């Protein structure tokens, strides 16, 4: 069979309230949520995709975009043509989409189509992307959320020690709670770790204007950071470029940018050292490979962002394995896996075999497609909304 006609699309909104709400610089997170998409072909192959819901993003927006704008474009079409369908969906939604939840909706469909392609051909998605540069990836711990907001440096230092004892050799500290508080947190963590071999990144979640972002970057000069993430708002592309000119630390960003069109503006402005597309919001694999090609041509490292469910993590793992190093050498910097350690039932319970860190690495799944098996029980348990569409 040389085509896989799309017979059915199911959209699921899942939500899990958090026992203990936590803060990042933009607000309090009270629940983890996602929009999941299951696409079934006429011959019975199923693919899964996810629209990443940012901490403050209602998952119903992407679900509505899938149901109302995208399903009519894909039902009955060939699932083995993800690029053709991506451009059909993008062109259809250009005037009301391009970024945000609509692009996350396109991402969910695109990931599901690539999952189907892999299963149809009997290969993991990284084979379809050109092959695996690596069979495993080093994870970095993403955590350090706040329970009060400010003044938590000693608790955060204890958290850092916990990550080190769990085997993490890299970790990313959430900042953006005021420059003075941020510096106190960093000094406390560095003192507690007392181990320069552990790589540290910082993430301000665009809390600052350029002036404070530069002040913070200068104050952290001696911390030998691997990168400084989202110092300013994603709209301030010239601000990113200015920070790159004025600071020595590599500047990272892109989790709130979308598609090759959006990243093109960042590359043209020399705004990034590290590009961080999220597979679940940048436009899926189809957009991510466009972004990767441009990044490679501009000498920018690609290190995907991922804070979603096990589906988004699986997509991230497949993509990470297919990323060439940006600057080749015997000891080149390899991409890392963002490993969210916050409370998230959709990471541990959604798939039959959750990832594990073994000897400080996470293996890239080798089964066809995304390489995961979904626990429908978990979806039934946390589902707040679902819709099904069948080709007529
Ligand atoms: Ca981030």
Protein model, in words:
Helix content is 38%, strand content 20%. The chain contains 13 helices and 14 strands. It has helices at residues 59-74, 82-93, 100-121, 125-128, 153-166, 179-193, 210-219, 237-246, 259-268, 284-297, 310-321, 345-348, 376-382, and strands at residues 6-24, 27-41, 46-52, 136-137, 139-142, 170-174, 199-203, 228-229, 251-253, 274-275, 301-302, 337-340, 362-363, 383-390. The strands form 3 sheets. Strands 11-10-9-8-7-6-5-12 form an 8-stranded parallel β-sheet. Strands 3-2-1-14 form a 4-stranded antiparallel β-sheet. The longest helix is centred in the first third of the chain and has 22 residues, at 100-121. The chain is globular and about 60 Å long. The mean pLDDT is 96. The structure holds calcium ion. The site of calcium ion has 5 residues, from loops. Calcium ion is lined by residues 203, 205, 229-230, 255.
Please give a handful of descriptors for the protein shown:
alpha/beta, eight-stranded parallel beta sheet, 2 domains, four-stranded antiparallel beta sheet, Enolase-like, domain 1
